[in-house]
Amino acid sequence: MNGASDKFEMLIFTPIMKVYLDNAATTPIAQEVLDEMMPYLTENFGNPSSIHAYGRKAKAAIEKARKTVAKYLNASTSEVFFTGSGTESSNMIIKGAVHHLGVQRIISSKIEHHCVLHSVEAVEREGVQVDYVKLDKEGRVDYADLERLLTASDKKTMVSLMHANNEIGTLLDLHRVAELCEKYGAYFHSDTVQTIGYMPFDVQALKIHFLSGSAHKFHGPKGVGFVYINADAVLKPFMDGGSQERNMRAGTENVFGIVGLGKALGLAVEYMDANHTYIAGLKQYMIERLNSEIPGIAYNGDISNGGSNYKVLSVSMPPHSKSELMLFNLDIAGIAASGGSACTSGSEKGSHVLEAINAPVDRKAIRFSFSKYNTKEEIDYTIQALKKMLDVPSVAV
Ligand code: PLP
Prior knowledge:
With 397 residues, the protein is α/β, with parallel strands linked by helices. The protein is 37% helix and 12% strand. The longest helix has 22 residues, at 272-293.
């Protein structure tokens, strides 16, 4: 290092494309979703609690969206509640389970999203016992350790484990955890924010008590989510106020947001298989190109087909003097990716997920996450930019 000039050396790379590969942070809203929402921002402005025609129209739109969610989950509409975000959903469940269901112990993991991790820490400060399950170096839950923890105490327990990790993509075997929870009488919550709209769910078969979802992760609007609360695990309201959402979530509903969530989920379900094949193909294509063209490339988390979320790829860059500037240089090249969880990107704080799986500290992690709107050409362009940044010579063709 030659002082500040080296440290701040940037790659001069004139952007010729704009490439959005940060779809685990958020997804672009689909035009069809926006079209469906617009009337609820304009002429259909009624308050769903009003009994006149304006109100009834807004209420009917909310109930239509609720049916879409319930059908997707194979749940009853009475088990689906709209919230303001995935964060709110997980707060509602974790704090509600402690305050209203008598949960005295939570088993979770160190790689949960902060909305779970910090909620768990908040109830721990109230005296709840918290245990973290062991993980392997790819972030997979050690199921034997989970079973050991479940048998280790008589306290009323809830397990809160995410379905797909937002930074590294590693998946949880939901059925296996649900069976263990059933066997030992524990409640089960999963933060399914990264998989709702991408994978099928059947809560009748799964035997899970709580799920959380967020519309902006599947081409819906921001600021709207939902919780699934099983009829056998009824919580009390999280907020005091009016009787909206059957008394569970006071405050006039975000009607256009809920309409958008319903439309986005409907589209996600309709095209799920085709989208899955397409997006998984993009990810595989990127892995193949990285493996063959960038020496020393590695990955964080499970990248196997089936073991990981098909839209997330956390790349562990080979050590390089300019690697600290890579995200910045990608941005200059017109490529949006993330250095870890989107919620902490932009800050210098390291990733708690990468730390928990002991990812090498001398390697920069860059998360690329894909959507149905990405193309192979965008991946080609990204590979070209990465090679330039890592000084990998391009072979003339
Ligand atoms: N859970 C996971 C796994 C996430 O990736 C996110 C968003 O990054 C959230 C929860 C929070 O969702 P929201 O942005 O709707 O609060």
